[in-house]
Amino acid sequence: MKAKEIRALARENLKQIPKKIYMSMGLLLVVANIIPSVVNQVTDSKSGVGVNIIFFLLEIAAVFLLEIAAVILTANGYIFFDRWRNKIQKGGEEPNAWCGLSGQHLARLAVYGVIVSVTLAIVVVIVGLVISQVPVAVSIILLILLVVLLVWIELRLTYVVYVIDDDVRTGQKRSVWAEIGASWKLTKGRVWKLLCLKLSFLGWYILTAFTLGILGIWLMPYYNLAIAETYEQSKEDKY
């Protein structure tokens, strides 16, 4: 299916979710997206300022907890709208705001986050070391390739959260590596379609920026339903 068709399905699904429900979750997702930016601004503004080591450690802990909260809220949003899509199309219970995320969800998401963070950090460090040893022109090319690589990896990992939720709900025992592999397999041959779909929301994100994030209360549910739809279509090999 083309991006236009996926978006149309997402809009139809969104119409069937009560506004007070999807807008509340949309607000949480907007907050989750804002948290990292706010944290970065606060930490940057305090960099270089001499502070007590205890307060410094407390600040680091607070930043870490806020980042974790943002990740959990985002993952919860993915799962929330995927379950709503499933309810609309196949029937079943209406998901609550927290979606029933269990300790297994959180543990697997934490492991997944660590794996991705460490892997990306290693890639960035290696590229950084190489760049420091080559001419400027080559450095620019390497930076472009790095960006392309990171985007490609992000697209291949699009479905990991959904796979984790499916495994927890069905009681399937798989390692997080296997769940990452499942997402990798589902996105095989679909990377370009996913990229086009995500880019098709670019205009909406620009408008959201002009509204200081207010439009995101509607956009985030719309976007999440679209991605959830591609996941279902990919499982059925229709996307």
From TrEMBL:
Coiled coil: none
Membrane-crossing segments per the record: 21-39, 51-81, 109-131, 137-164, 195-220
Pfam families: DUF975
Superkingdom, taxonomy of origin: Bacteria
UniProt keyword annotations, A-Z: Membrane, Transmembrane, Transmembrane helix
UniProt name for this protein: DUF975 family protein
Lineage: Bacteria, Bacillati, Bacillota, Bacilli, Lactobacillales
